[in-house]
Known about the structure:
The chain is α/β, with parallel strands linked by helices. The protein has twelve helices and 15 strands.
Amino acid sequence: MNALEHQLDYPYTDTLPEPGHTLDVAPGVKWLRMPMPFALDHINLWLLRDEIDGQAGWTVVDCGIANDTIKAHWEQVFDTALEGLPVLRVLVTHCHPDHIGLAHWICEGGDKKRWNVRLWTTLGEYMSARVMSSGDSSNAGGEGAARHFGRHGLVDQQSQDLLRNRGGYYTNLVPALPAQYRRLRDADTVTIGGRAWRVVTGFGHSPEHCALFCEETRVLLSGDMVLPRISTNVSVFDVEPEGNPLGLYLNSLGRYETMPEDTLVLPAHGKPFRGVRTRIAQLRAHHDARLAEVMEACAASPRSAADIVPLMFKRQLDIHQTTFAMGEALAHLNLLWLAGKLKRSTGADGVIRFSA
């Protein structure tokens, strides 16, 4: 546990649910933890006891990527953890594969087709998932990503080839999407198990991220917007190359700063914790420090996003991590550029560089 983590309260300490099993963490809320084949090796998913139109059952919050291992764990959960009750709806916080990948499969009741229920999410997340699942753009791979990151200095042939070969990244992890959905909007109230959960949208990490806050029990299902150990990835991808996602993200954090400090935060990665205001202050300080580093580097000499990556990420990165590191470096550069603190120019080599 690092120094910042010591400032937070982890009520379940090192207790984790085994894959395929659940752990009760709040009134009517069960915690699932599924493995993922990436450096970020897990995702937290949630089961909320529910009742819709007189039918008792469960709301699933987030789904995991589409692979056989996670499907098998879900099948075990369906058979052993639902108390003989069906899933009544699937609520997805955002469009990234680890959250929406199995939404279609779970909505249709898994391998045994136990039920057929609706996906609930925001318009921004549903439509973004539809676009990316069409194969036209996946942000993290394919020809568009290779051109985008090449313009920002990732020009070595090996990286370019690896990026081009990741064209099926999204569709491999999200092979299908429900053809219909129910729209959630900011400040909507969703009644789950007789309790009111307020929709809190956030921006920067994804187009219209949907977190859920229950004031009665002081529980926040934070998705990826507020994480305890790592900072949320905020990236500029090829679909919006002049975007300012970091500015959007920092503004969005204000929506969580008004929540009680003893709110139990149930994040998509890491462990449940209390200390939401403390964590947001840490995240703001983290980005302030990174912005200062980027500003100092660009004042010394013009820098591309590829030049900034080693300043922000001190470890060796694989191509999966490199795409997010490049996107994050560019997010910090774009914020400073759009604020008028940096200027950018394109060199004779076609690479965009930023200078003070």
